[in-house]
Design brief:
The complex is a heterodimer of chains A (about 110) and B (about 110).
Chain A (H helix, E strand, L loop, with lengths): L3 E3 L4 E4 L4 E7 L7 E6 L6 E6 L3 E5 L2 E6 L4 E6 L8 E9 L4 E4 L3 E6 L1
Chain B lengths: L4 E3 L2 E4 L5 E6 L6 E8 L3 E9 L2 E5 L6 E5 L5 E5 L8 E8 L8 E2 L3 E5 L1
Parallel strand pairs in B: 2-11
Antiparallel strand pairs in B: 1-3, 3-8, 4-5, 4-9, 5-6, 7-8, 9-10, 9-11
The chains are: A mainly beta (about 110), B mainly beta (about 110).
Chain lengths: ~110, ~110
């Protein structure tokens, strides 16, 4: 079983819609979770970090963490074509605090 | 505050050669991690250095090595290059007020011919 699983997509949504990205992980001891966005040919950039169960909102982005079910999700409201990118989920695992990455979900927002 | 910088940005080498890539972390960050990214493979973790010591290591052959200097700058070296080493090499730093969040540099794109 992969340590972090994401649907590779592509996920296609119309402009203005809500995009929902999901990530499941296997390490129940994980405490820190991150969502990064990566445009083609560029390096990943942090969108949001979340550490506690529940929702965390930042502008059009909302991260949701459910440790009991071992998933973390990212909602993008009012999706824009500029949101088209690959979204990477990551979390810290184990005592050595290594960051474990998913393979990413490709999102396409259609005008 | 300046971000993570990587040099060079682009590199073309031939099989059998070796290459050294450099990374300067954000000021105050003591942890530097290196990743290899190829199409369809996601981010493959190479190693992490903290205060000049390798703290974590991924599953790469010994041809891949790294080090960190007292000013937290880091280098990674790949010896005896293979065609499959063509990739985007990313460096990320964390620490200081940023806590556990990793901040990435622009990457070095390596092409092995």
């Amino acid at each position: 079983q992969k340590e972090v699983e994401q649907n590779s997509g592509p996920l296609s949504v119309p402009e203005g819609a809500i995009a929902s990205l999901n990530c499941t992980y296997s390490d129940r001891g994980s405490q820190s979770f991150f969502w990064y966005r990566q445009y083609s040919g560029k390096s990943p950039e942090l969108i949001m970090s979340i550490y506690s169960n529940g929702d965390k909102e930042d502008g059009r982005f909302t991260a949701q963490l459910n440790k009991a079910s071992q998933y973390v999700s990212l909602l993008i409201r009012d999706s824009q074509p500029s949101d088209s990118a690959t979204y990477l989920c990551a979390h810290h695992a184990g005592n050595n605090r290594k960051l474990i990455w998913g393979l990413g979900t490709s999102l396409a927002v259609n005008p | 505050k300046a971000g993570v910088t990587q040099t060079p940005r682009y590199l073309i080498k031939t099989r059998g050669q070796q290459v050294t890539l450099s990374c300067s972390p954000i000021s105050g960050h003591r942890s530097v991690s290196w990743y290899q990214q190829t199409p369809g493979q996601g981010l493959q973790f190479l190693f992490e250095y903290f205060s000049e010591t390798q703290r974590n290591k991924g599953n790469f052959p010994g041809r891949f090595s790294g080090r960190q200097f007292s000013n937290s700058r880091s280098e990674m070296n790949v010896s005896t290059l293979e065609l499959g080493d063509s990739a985007l090499y990313l460096c990320a730093s964390r620490g200081g007020t940023g806590g556990e969040t990793q901040y990435f540099g622009p990457g070095t794109r390596l092409l092995v011919l």
